[in-house]
Amino acid sequence: MKNLIEYILIHLVQHPEDVNVVESEDDRGMVFTIHVNQEDIGRVIGKGGSVIQSIRNIGKIRAVKEGIHAYINIDDGDKEENA
């Protein structure tokens, strides 16, 4: 599953060397957190969230085949807590 997400992202962004998918587990299931270059976040999210929603749909299909619950999140970089 992680390899599939990385494959999609590498071919989507302009800085493929910065693509990193972190796999972790919580009480709901597997969580895949996407880390990309700050310049590529717009490409990953897409207009109105259409691209990330498509990636999540593909992930859900793969998760069903693997018999797991999977969630895909984007780490949007450095957020300032004071802002």
Provide the fold topology.
Blueprint: H1 2-10, E1 20-25, E2 30-35, H2 41-45, H3 50-66, E3 70-75
Parallel strand pairs: 2-3
Antiparallel strand pairs: 1-2
* Overall helicity: 25-40%
CATH class: Alpha Beta
- Classify the fold: give the CATH topology: GMP Synthetase, Chain A, domain 3
Going across the biggest sheet, name each strand in turn: 1-2-3
Structural class, by secondary structure, is: alpha+beta
Helical run tally: 3
Average pLDDT, all residues: 91
The CATH H-level homologous superfamily: K homology (KH) domain
The amount of beta strand, in percent, is 15-25%
User: What's the total count of β strands?
Assistant: 3
Stretches where pLDDT is under 50 for at least 5 consecutive residues are 79-83
Can you characterise this structure?
The chain is an alpha+beta fold. It has one domain (2-75): K homology (KH) domain (GMP Synthetase, Chain A, domain 3), CATH 3.30.300. The chain has three helices and three strands. It has helices at residues 2-10, 41-45, 50-66, and strands at residues 20-25, 30-35, 70-75. The chain has a three-stranded mixed sheet, covered by helices on one side. The relative contact order is 0.22. Mean pLDDT is 91; it is low at 79-83.
Describe what is shown at a glance.
This protein is α+β, with helices and mostly antiparallel strands. It has helices spanning 2-10, 41-45, 50-66, and strands spanning 20-25, 30-35, 70-75.
Q: Top keywords for this entry?
A:
3 strands; alpha+beta; three-stranded mixed sheet; 22% strand; 83 residues; GMP Synthetase, Chain A, domain 3
